[in-house]
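Pinned message: reference record for S-(Hydroxymethyl)mycothiol dehydrogenase
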Amino acid sequence: MSEIVQGVIARSKGADVETVGVVIPEPGANDVVVKVATCGVCHTDLAYRDGDIEDAFPFLLGHEAAGVVEQVGSDVTHVAEGDFVVLNWRAVCGECRACKKGEPKYCFNTHNASKKMTLEDGTELTPALGIGAFAEKTLVHEGQCTKVDPAADPAAAGLLGCGIMAGLGAAVNTGEVQLGESVAVFGCGGVGTAAIAGARLAGAATIIAVDLDDNKLATAREFGATHTINSTGKSEEEVIDAVRELTGGFGTDVAIDAVGIMATWRQAFYSRDHAGRMVMVGVPNLTATIDIPAIDLYGRGGSIRPAWYGDCLPERDFPAYISLFQNGQFPLDKFVSERIGLGDVEAGFTTMKQGKVLRSVVEL
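Predicted structure (tokens):
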């Protein structure tokens, strides 16, 4: 039987979000209803609200979530009622050409719920990243649920659902940071700081944080940065020279652009050593272009790798990082800057844009 819960929607482009009644239908055969415990305020939700991803309004926002499975469809085998889960937007199909090639991180046919959540008047909602977790409950495919240790703090655990995993994976999975290597991270918001923490976890010897904000750079040091560069007022060449000076004049083994604008992209590209790896995890806007001389692309060797979701596999990675967190080896809880209510999402967007938090987390 369907039920009505409270959820946060973006009704139209750029308009303030609203808390409204959301109809959760009875789950389909492979769907589950999850009672949401926490959901992080991610920049992707702001991008949905502002129409920067697609125009399928109204959106049910929220996707970086943890909760408890409350109801399961008739054919569900992956989870059971009462399981504590982190939600993910990469529920791999196992059948597409990427999955069959052994590259499920590039799955082209990830699973979503078979039914639509709606407003009380029947208007269909588009759930952010197929999840829609700024709500007391949400409907997802069973594959979008990853079981983790229920003893973990939901506010911390849920952050693996998107931004923190994206940054962490950009270093560990995409960048393949090795013991003793050097890493530079451009942009020290939540994703960039997670990349720094990931580089530290992987054993990087030199970790350089680059940002415009001294407060963010101080936080970056807490998460593992060995050096910081405030790029305010510096030219592109001055930033690149500063990175090279910290790496024996060669540049870094791995450079991570965690912003997705061309200024940081170019800094990351030219700051790496010859044959070094560059990772682009910051998401560019729809009109951005990359403009560098072709000879620079050819002549520098190495690789340029986009990181989608940190190239993670939720079933492999989420439980592992929860264990590292609980063992005191990865500071997942330190990414939780504040805990807010469901009605505070719009204020959370403002705080995020001001750069005052790593993550605001809605607790339900």
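Pinned by admin. Summary line: The chain has a mean pLDDT of 96.
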